[in-house]
Structure formats: structure tokens, C-alpha cells
Amino acid sequence: MTTDVTPAPRRQATPAKPAPDRTGTVIVAVLVLGWLAGVLWRLWLGNPITHPIAHTDEDSYMNAARAIAGGPEGFSSETPLFRRIGYPLLVSPAFLFGLDFATSYKIVHVVNAMISALTLPLAYLLGRRMFGLKPWIALAAALAAATIPAGVFWSLVGMTDSIMAPLMLGWFLAIHRWLGDTARKGAAITAGVITGVLYTVHIRGTILLLVYFAFLAFLVFRRLARVRSAALSLVPVMALIVLNQVVILLVGDRVHLRGDIVGGGTLEVFTDGQRLQVFIAAFGTNIWYLCVVTAGLAGLAWVAAALEIFRPAGVNPAERTFRPPGGRDAAFRWTAGVALLSTVGTALGAALILAGLVGLPADAIYSRYVQVFVPFWLLFGFAVLADSRLRTLVRYAIVPVLILGVGGAVIAFRLRYVAEQGHRLGYGLFGGPDIITITAGWKQFRPLVGTAIGLTGLAVLLAVTRLRRLMIPVLALVVALNGVTMAVMRDRLIEPIAARYTLPIDLPELGVGPGDSIGFTGDMTHEGYFVLYHDVYWTELTQLPDDTKPDVDVVIGRYYPGVPFHWDGTKYGYELLGASQDDGQVGVWRRR
């Protein structure tokens, strides 16, 4: 006898729930902490700087900010045509509380650092939205762009350049978002707001404004945007242009403009052979510079952008050789076009202005006006590098290789030719602090070294990033190199020049402060004048005529006993409060 036993049904295992993807949360946290670290890093780099070091631009902006905040009058090296009030207006709250200048100046540094460090999240958003990079690769690329010395250095001084790089990234991001759907009113307004801000910050903003006008006209002509949407974008632009002029009128002549008419010979650039040579050399050197400091990535990006702009309408984007995961649409195409036109336009405009000043010693390099584009083109170039086939990259690389090689050779020839004529091209800290540092060009411009660095960097990147798993380590190495470069720059450039503009004279310790009228004598040293000019923050200074009895409480004059330019206050009934013969050659005298 058998008994059928029905086996108990097996319980089916319940599939485990997939672990929640916390990548987004982690990246947001990294971006926030990275921004904070970027702020602190910039403040550490700029800690030795207690007074302006970029004369007379910094002095002009600080004086304008002080005047906006209701402080005493001051000078500016600007001209009526080139005058912009956006940056002084931004940092003017630092001068609202009657603090000593050194404290107010540190507040300016904090503002600069907070805005400059926004390069990191903005670069990340561009990497994700415009270039379609994967989250962690986009983050690594953003860190490389946010630490590039071309952007970081300028956050250490009180100049418009301290905030221009993140503004440019924000502008391109806003334009790309708007082009993704031109019916978005918020995106149109945002793009207009940033355009207007760029205009109020610096004369470069005028070039970008013209580019934006042409861009809007193109959108309407090609029916990519409605007239109403383009007009809506122009409203904040016009409002900010008016605001710039209104604030200038309110400040009035409390800021005395001392600037010459910059570019007085601009109209002669294309009729005078020497000016034309300076124009071509200045433009070409800036293009060469952009390729050097990005290790050729800017050149790769220019090729990709140009091909995209001039791509025939019938070509399917999916069939092209440059195919990142995000795809290529009209938003990418025309944002790349705006970026390329803005870069070329700014480089040409800067070259035109410099050629107009040819009566002065011409500059070997003056990269300040184009450095704002470096983070964007570094990011763009890496996206091309990461998402193109090797064969395509080799073809693209012909352009940066030619720019680096031919450009370096021509620049070296120009330097030698000018030297043989008994002249020397200008080469200073603010012409290109990053190129000075990476080429070890402490005393002379070294274009061939720059070319070698650019070509080597490009070859390494082309070879190493073919292995996708090495992309993040390579970008981490770039970040490390950026950090080392800035540390060297701090040691070799920032600290020495900051020490030059730090004097042992402390006016409060000498009993000089609010309530005292102050006069400066002639023949003061550059260092003595600019340091103590700012330390007298409560009143406008009086420039004293020579060999005349002063009518002020305190006189600050050249101190060097035994030489003709020494100012001896005892002849006029003043007693010496303190002096420094070694640093600044300054003496402080009070009327008995």
C-alpha cells in the first residue's frame, strides 16, 4: 500500500529591492564641500596680500567701491568710455562700516573667493548638461576646471577678473538651457541678466553684449526663437546697462577719472605697419596661450565647435565622429558657437586696444583678457577627448599642434628680433601669472618652454584617456598639478609682491586716524604711496605742492635723510612720528 504525499510548495524567494542610488546626493555633498574648500584655499593663497598689488586697476575699483559706500573721494585710472561700476558695486558693502582698509580689503577677498569657487558647481552642470559626461567624470573635470590657475589667481586681487570666469560659465549654461527650449521665460531672462552683469563688470562685457545681440538676431532670423522671447531676454540687459549709468551718475565726480583715452591710436591699427604687427602678435599670442595652459584641449574644442557650427543641415548628429552620451542638438551647437565667437571677439578686442597703445613698450604677452575662457575650454576639450575616436582626435589635434608649434616659434622669433633692435617687450606678473609659473619664466618670457609643455600635455592626454578607467585618475593628476602650480606661484610671485606692498608703518599706532587731515608730498615711492593712500580711509588725501608750508594735520612724505627728495618736516614745524627708510622710504609727520 502506497500513500501519495504531495510535497509542500516551495516558497519563492522575494527578490531583494535594489539599493537606492545615492550618487546624486553624494555628488551634491561633494560639490558643496568642494566649493567651501575652494573658498578656503583661495583665502589661504591670498592671505599674504594685505593691500592692492595690481596698480592702478585695483586702486581704482577699491576707491570706487569706497565712494559708493559713502566714503571719501578718490582717483580712478578708468576713462569715461571704459568705466564700469558692477564690480565696485558688488564689493562696496565691505566699506560700509568704517573699518580700516586692511579689514575691508579682506572682506573683498572673501567675496571674490566665494564667487570664484562657484566655478566648480557651474563647471559640473555644464559637464553634465551640455557635454553629457557621466556624473563622476563630470565632477573630476569640474574640479580640474575650478582649480586652473588662470581663474584662481585673479580671485586673489580686487579686480573684475576675480569673478569673470564663473560668470562666463554661468552665461554659457544659461544660454544652453534656454536653447534647449526657447519657450522657457526664466531661462531667457537668466541669460539676459548674466549678459547685463557682464556688461556692467568690464569693457569685455561690451564685446560679449555685441555677440549676444548678434546671437539673438540669428535666433530670430533662423526661427529658433520667437521675437517675444528674444525681447524678453533683452529687458534685463537694458535694465542693467541703465543701472550702470545711474550709479556712475550718483557717484559723480567723487571718483576722479585719471585714465588716458585708451586706444587713442586704434583707428590707425590697420594703416600703420607697427600697430598692425602689434595687433596680430597680441591676438596670436593669446590664442597660443589658451592652448598652452589647457595642454592643447582648447584647440581640440575649437575644432569640434567649428565643425559643429558649420555642419551641413542634412547631416544626422548621430552619424558624426564626436558623439558624447548627451548627443548633439541645437542647444549644444549654438552655445558652442557663442563661446567660440566670444573668445575670438575678446581676443581681437584686447589686441586692438593694446595695438592702440603701441607708443608704450609693447607686451610680450597680456593674457588677462582671455583667461576667463580657460575653464570653459578646458572642460569642452576634455569632453571632446573623452567622447571621440582616436582617429578623430588625431585629426583634431593637428590644429592645437600647429598653434603650439608655429605660435611658439613665431613668438620666440619676435622676442629675438625686438632684442636685436635694442628694445625689450614688456613681461610682467599681470600679463600672465600662470604662464610665468608653469614655464619658470621668472625673468623672461619662455615661449618654447610653453610650447613643449602644451605638446607634451596633449600627447599624454591623448594616449592615457583612451583607457576610460584612467580618465578620473588623469583628471585627479591635473587637479594636483594645478594645486602645485598655485603653491609655487604663492611662493615665487604672490608673497614677494605682497611683501613689497606691506610697510612697517602703522598709522593707528602713531596716533593718526579719523579726524586728521592728511597730505602727501611729491617724490614718494610707488610702494609708500599706494600702501598709505589706502590706509588713510577716512578722508581724501591732499597732494601738497613742493616747497610750500602744508596746511594739514599730518604729512606723509618721502623719507631718506641726506638726499634732495627727502621731506624734512622740521622746517615747517612738524615733528616726526615714525619712519621707514628701508621699506617704502616713508616718514609720517604731525604738526606741532
UniProtKB/TrEMBL annotation:
Chain segments carrying region Disordered: 1-20
**Which UniProt keywords are present, listed alphabetically?**
Membrane, Transferase, Transmembrane, Transmembrane helix
Any one GO molecular-function label of the UniProt entry:
transferase activity
Keyword Transferase assigned: yes
Please indicate which superkingdom the organism of origin belongs to: Bacteria
Where are the membrane-spanning stretches? 26-45, 107-127, 136-157, 163-179, 207-225, 232-252, 287-310, 331-357, 369-386, 393-413, 447-464, 470-489
Name-wise, this protein is: 4-amino-4-deoxy-L-arabinose transferase-like glycosyltransferase
